[in-house]
Amino acid sequence: MKKLTFIGSGKIAESMILGLISSKYLKENICICSPDEQSRTAISNQYSLKNFKNNTHGMHIGDVIILAVKPNIIPVVCAEIKDIENLSNKIIISVAAGVTIKKICEYIEKKNITVVRAMPNTPVLINQGVTGLYAQKINTNQKEFITELFNKISKTFWLSHEEELNSIIATASSAPAYFFLMMECMQKSAQKMGLDPEYIKELIVQTAKGSAMLAEHFHDKSFQVLKHHVVSKGGTTEAALNVFTQYNFQKIIEKSMKSAANKAKEIEKVYN
After folding, report:
1. Is 71 annotated as a binding residue?
2. CATH, range 174-269
3. For 103-161, how does the pLDDT look when each residue is reduced to its tens digit (9 = 90+)?
4. 35 assigned ligand-binding residue
5. Nearest CA to 93 among 146, 131, 57, 168?
6. What is the pTM of this model?
7. Is 68 annotated as contributing to ligand binding?
8. Residue 272 reports pLDDT greater than 80
9. How far are the Cα atoms of 28, 113, 172 from residue 211, in angstroms, in the given order?
10. Domain 4-168: what homologous superfamily?
11. What pLDDT score does 138 carry?
């Protein structure tokens, strides 16, 4: 089992770490590095992990270095990575939006290294995530390991082109927030209708869960077909959907997803 070193102690790092631990990845093979002592020690104490304030200490012992930091921090940590011994034998995984593999290699000042870009989403915390993956130089054994690693916490999708990661961000990485917004709005509306606040959240969560499981069960049927199975002509569901159509719900979703993808492209321009 390879040793994993997480650089960064933010939400996505913690989500991945907890997901891996719950899928029986050995705690002894995971360490976390961050200058942020509060968040670093909180995670390391909660999950009994090795932790280092100095990134290079963890980088030396990790077979896989996971850059779980914001795009503006990538140049800083790459400057630390470039002096690590046996770097050609390690795998570097970046979960930062917008910073290309080419740029990461430039920051590290080495070309013959294995760099993988990964775009997971927060449900990796409970092993129900989605991860888009892309690499340019990767051998079969490395690819199998990366696939197995992320399969522990998510469904994985290897992409043919790096720019597709921007669409993955819009469709999956950012998407849990879209669903939570929808659920939040439903919760507020249900309260205004007079439903008991004690069970509204459970009601909405179970409905969302059941709908997702139904879509997965009938994977050969389109979302449109599944939607029409709920609708009766002249009924309550049709009345609700007519309002969505009236206010162009499709256009709102389309604009929101494009905005997420465009933001990723803006980040690319800044750091590439």
Report:
1. yes
2. 1.10.3730.10
3. 999 999 887 899 999 999 999 999 999 999 999 989 999 999 999 999 999 999 999 99
4. no
5. 146
6. 0.92
7. yes
8. no
9. 38, 43, 17
10. NAD(P)-binding Rossmann-like Domain (3.40.50.720)
11. 94
